[in-house]
Amino acid sequence: MAKKRRELTMLLIAMACALGGIFAVLFLSVMPFNRNVVARRDFIVYWATGQQLAHHGNPYDPDALNRIERDAGFQGGASFYMRNTPWALPLAVPLGYMGPMASALPWSLAMLGLLVASVRILWKLMGSAGPLDWLGICFPPALFCVLLGQTSILLVFGLALFLRYHKTRPFAAGAALWFCSIKPHLFLPFALVLLIWIFVSRSYRILAGGVTAFAAGALLTTWVDPSAWSQYAYYMRTSVITREFTPCLGAVLRDWIHPAWEGLAFVPAIVASVWAVAWFWPRRHEWDWLEHGSPLVLVSLFAAPFGWIFDQAVAIPAILFAVSRKASQTMLTILALLYIAVQAQIISHVGLHSALYLWPAPAWLVWHVFARVSSRGAAAVAE
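Request: output the structure for the sequence above.
Response:
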């Protein structure tokens, strides 16, 4: 019976990974030959921003971006903006010297390469490998991120490098966190605990690495576009992106109480930050960023003031850590079913603003907690 259950679990995992992998391969195969596929992806905003930067234009100019994106085939209702922090602008500069069709596939393949590299780094750190590494590579939000041409894979890469090197190469580990800073709203409780931990453990080289990387990024951004900071500030003051609905707890709370009170979206993150400090402090002397930091990342993701399903790629380290600690067959089966459910929503073209995407973030957190409990229970029985 146990053997049959294991075989069923592995079959479901294989199906979940194959479903995502096959869809990704087909999509990437079609991309170089279909202008509409390229123009409908989020990639088009990075390409348009690169065009503006390469020609010394304002990367936040709505009229210019609208013209460039529509010339490339975009047919949406409004122009896209690159919403990342300004120090991410240099990432788009190379795209300014290529056409959309020529650059779309290399951009996505680069993101896929970083995803694979991140998973390999994590598995090496956790002492696990084998067929289950496909659970990381085929994590549905991450593959969706690759297909859209989004940059959340960079966050996974930075987090993986930090986890891998914070003990042996602290300066480099701190510098790697620059990647996470391009979407800092996803890491608010995590960042607070990180800062407290640095001072408690006197890990000042990590702080030095982070400050150095941030300063270098800021200088590079200023060199690429000296007006980037003021342009971004004006864009944030005049845009309505902080009022739009994204499928996360903060947006639900804001819209439920008062849609115009934008600060309400940060209330879950503030509450989560209080919990994070309470979680960290009793463990401060034996704090482990894999053991204790994994649920912290998932709580930060769940409580983010805004975010999208592809941003949940940052859950990969926590998911793989729970798997590597011998999660039970039942929990692995549930994980495979969660993969299939998310993939079904993505393939069925559920809109990114849909409330149907509210459930995955808490689902990863709940699954992680129960998977860790199941692995500790199995270890106790084995003893």
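Residues 2-382 form one domain.
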